[in-house]
Amino acid sequence: MRFSSQVNFPSPLDVIDNNFRGSGIALYMKRDDLIHPWVNGNKYRKLSCNIQHFYDKGFAGICSFGGAFSNHLIALAYITHVECIPFVAFVRAYEYDHNNPILKKISSWGTKIIIVPPDQYHLKEQGEIPQSFLKEHNNYYLIPEGGTNDLALKGAAQIIKEIYSQTDTDKYSKVVCTVGTGGTSAGIYANMNSTENLMLACPFKSNLSYLRGFELIKRDIPIDTINVSNHKKFGAYDPDIVSFINRFYNDYQVLLDPIYTAKTMYWLANNLDHVHLNDIQKIIFIHTGGLPGIIGYNYLYRNKETIRIPLKYDHLQSPDMTFG
Fold first, then answer.
1. Which helix (H) or strand (E) holds 143?
2. In contact, 146 and 67? CB cutoff 8 Å
3. Packing angle between helix 293-300 and helix 101-108, nearest 10 degrees?
4. CATH number at residue 12
5. Do both 31 and 72 map to the same domain?
6. What is the CB neighbour count within 10 angstroms for residue 88?
7. From the CB of residue 221, how many other CB atoms can be counted at a distance below 10 Å?
8. Does 279 fall in a domain?
9. Helix (H) or strand (E) holding 198
10. pLDDT, tens only, 155-195
């Protein structure tokens, strides 16, 4: 794959703070946000094996689902652009917003955008609009929303394998990962040593029953599940999270995304006394990326305080809009 030459791989494991918030706990971070500017974080992990499968099976194109500000669609759009693969994005929306900077960006990469109303979107490929397309293009490879399938778990497994090569397994006591569809965390979980503990941070629900990734594996390693929604609807504006993202970057020069990683880190920073560790006071936080989604977040909430875009992330600043 031509795209593979562009990635920063393996991602580094960085020390963020040896005494996080004065707790005595050392915070390390697996920096998957540094893998690629557009195919950010877990998106490369989940999609790399799927793209190889596309080539192995000789499909003619790729299609997938996502919201109007989807990191999954951004990543797929960029990869298929570089690889010259036809790509169709079924986008959940009532209408096409021609000012949406995410849709403008993926369209500029050659993505064909098909709007699917929310009342049909939950049907996914069984809905009338996607089904009509797929009947005419049955040689297209359908990747699930979020990219989670058995191939995604195989890619995500590399995260914990890299961590094992970067530090001794007896030098930390907990791995913390935020969850969306569950593919990344399930891939990690399936390949963890039995002596470790995984903490999953859910930004919208507090149980694992809805996570597609965990349907594919069965293990008895303990999992701690926390709800980091901050009592907000998924994707809703949260001034506390926006302020936290800006402060965290000032303190550590690490940018977090407002939907997943920032909510998890915010919870950690304010609830360290609820994190049960063994004698090793060390946490590894998986930065699952999601940074391109900041473009959509700042666009959607442009009349409120927005996330400041550092100079080194200037690709996240929409060129035709001024935020904040």
1. strand 140-143
2. no
3. 140
4. 3.40.50.1100
5. no
6. 19
7. 13
8. yes
9. strand 198-202
10. 999 999 999 999 876 677 789 999 888 889 889 988 888 66
